[in-house]
Amino acid sequence: MEGRNRFVILLALVLFASVPAQSANQPAAARISSTHTASCLVKITFDPLVLSLDSLTIDYLMHSTSVGGRIAREMLDISPDQVSDIFIIEALGGASGRVLPEPSPMRRATPTGMNEYEYEMMKERERLGREYTASTARPGSSRRTSATTAMPPNSAAEQTILLKLQVNLPENVKPAAEEFMYALVDGLRSTLVKVFEDYKLRYESQLKLAEQEAARAETDLREKQKTLREISRSRVLDHDQILADIYRLRQEVQAAKMSQASNQVISDATTKRISEIQIKITEQLENDAISIEQQKIIDLIGKLLVEAEKQAKAGTITTSQVDEIKERLARERIAKATRRESLSKSLGGNLIESLNKELADRLIQETQQEASLTSMEKQLVEAESLLAKADDYELLSLKSGMAKQSLQESILWRDRTSRQIRLLQSPMVSILGGE
After folding, report:
1. How far, CA to CA in Å, does 383 sit from each of 202, 232, 242?
2. Taking the alpha carbons of 142, 146, 149, 155 in that order, is the dihedral positive or negative?
3. Is there a contact between 389 and 237 (Cβ–Cβ < 8 Å)?
4. Among candidates 434, 435, 432, which has minimal Cα distance to 42?
5. Cα angle vertex 431, ends 70, 84, to 5°?
6. Each residue of 84-143: pLDDT tens digit?
7. Which residue from 180, 282, 365, 381 lies 20 to 30 Å from 148 (Cα-Cα)?
8. What does the alpha-carbon distance between residue 320 and residue 179 come to, in Å, rounded to a whole number?
9. Rounded CA separation 102/117 (Å)
10. How many DSSP H helices and E strands does the chain contain?
């Protein structure tokens, strides 16, 4: 009933906006047929998902002031109030007036894989088949049935209604019954076609909107994907993995700093130890009696060498005697150096050599640790920067997924709406015979 009411309202809007229609075969200026009666069979074929028609709806439509009343006024010059008395409509048979639910463009596909329009039509054909089988199985069933007689089970999606149109004009009215009958059929046809065109236009508007939405969703998805590539720069921005890397780097930086501090303490202690040993050795060497005596001998020989060189210049002694004094001076110096070296080793000189080598190794380690620490701190800064990018990447990935879903739904909506438009069937109103 709600579907019929909506259809009647739509028809009323179309009727008030429609223009007068004349049959192509019956121009107004042609000679009238001089008939007061005329009748014919009218076959109406329609798509039940577009138009919800039955004999009552058609009778109301043809007797309305916008169809029958307007044509009676224009052709017969009578008041629209008299239109109910000059023609009658008798239902001979056709499809039921059951209203099917209108397909929703955004609804998901049925489990069978068909779109909703096809699925609803399949169910309607099954229902019509059951009604047809039941009606033909009853004894004494007649072909002259009401307008709710079902279609055969092999009928297409469209349905058909058969009507008998009988025109009876009073004697005081222009004798143009045939012209009036054809004009009534033309008026019905143009009205139903106009309703169909409005219905189709609504779907075409939906198709345009779906195409715009699909284009917008595609542009939005492409922009988000481009931004994702710019953020990631071919890197895997896994939030949890980056957090794990940051934790590991911080641990390594802390360990490296602790090791560096420990090495520095050891290096300072080693340097202090070397300095202490050197001071001790210096003090012992300065107080060594043998070394002191050796230094006295060296000083004495040094003075003898000076005198000998003077005498050699004067010619009192030979140069070989001078060379002997130089040799003796050299032996004493070597003896003193050997004594100091021996004394130094006994006081810790070997330990100083070992400590210097250890100190040199630790200085090399400190240099390496410093370079490694600088590298880890740089990696830590980059990882923390990537973490911020990962947060943006995760949020944008979520939006990108929603944009992809929106694009899929828009494409599905567009394709289904396009298919529904292709499946729409325009109503056909034809005259099977006239008397």
Report:
1. 55, 13, 6
2. positive
3. yes
4. 432
5. 35
6. 889 999 988 654 433 333 443 333 344 444 445 445 555 554 554 455 445 444 444 333
7. 180
8. 166
9. 8
10. 9, 4
Rounded Cα gap, residues 383 and 248, in angstroms: 11
Max mean pLDDT among 51-55, 220-224, 230-234 falls in: 220-224
Pairing of strands 87-94, 159-168: antiparallel
DSSP category for residue 84: G
pLDDT digit string, tens, across residues 131-183: 544 544 444 433 333 333 333 333 346 789 999 999 999 988 899 999 999 99
Q: Residues in the chain, how many?
A: 435
Please name the residue that has the structure tokens 């008026």. 187
Taking the mean position of all CA atoms in its chain, how far away is CA 142?
Answer: 61
- Provide the token pair at 52: 């919800």
52: nearest Cα among 15, 114, 94, 92: 94
Q: Are 126 and 231 in contact (CB under 8 A)?
A: no
How many alpha carbons lie under 13 Å from residue 239 in its C-beta half-sphere?
9
Q: Of 6-10, 41-45, 278-282, which gets the smallest average pLDDT?
A: 6-10
For residue 165, the cross-strand partners are 40, 89
Higher local confidence (pLDDT), 392 or 128: 392
The helix or strand, by DSSP H or E, that contains position 161, with its residue range, turns out to be strand 159-168
